[in-house]
Prior knowledge:
single chain, 157 residues, 6-stranded antiparallel sheet
Amino acid sequence: MAIDRGERDGVTSWDLSLDGRRRHDIRVTLILDPALAMVAWVHYAPPINDSFRVSYRKLLRWNDELPFVKFAVAADERPVLTSELAAAELDHEALGLMLARLLGVCDLLLDDSLVWLHPGAKRAPVPVRPPRNEALLDRYAGALAELLPPTADVPVA
């Protein structure tokens, strides 16, 4: 679902709210410089309030384990998840795969991110509705099998 769109100096951005299978309402910003690249920026979690060493170690481990995405910490201490596509490689298929990969990573790491996303919770909340963009997730599930759990394993309340 598109939330906002902006353009400045030939660079266009779109703010989206997308759903993974386990984690809904994931805020994604797409930034396109047609001469350079498209960057997808996921607002992964609120600012980190715990011991930075533990969180940074976790983010660095995920950077090592997960191809085609990178975690970073924004100026406001908020973890962000990013992916890039060179302008020459950008098409509908590549963009769809990039978005599905980011959502798959958000789902895959949900349990490991509870301390940031749902402080004090023992388990992640169970989605109460199917993902709004289920067709996107289904379309790229085969290409991202290592990230996406089988749909039968994803409870919906």
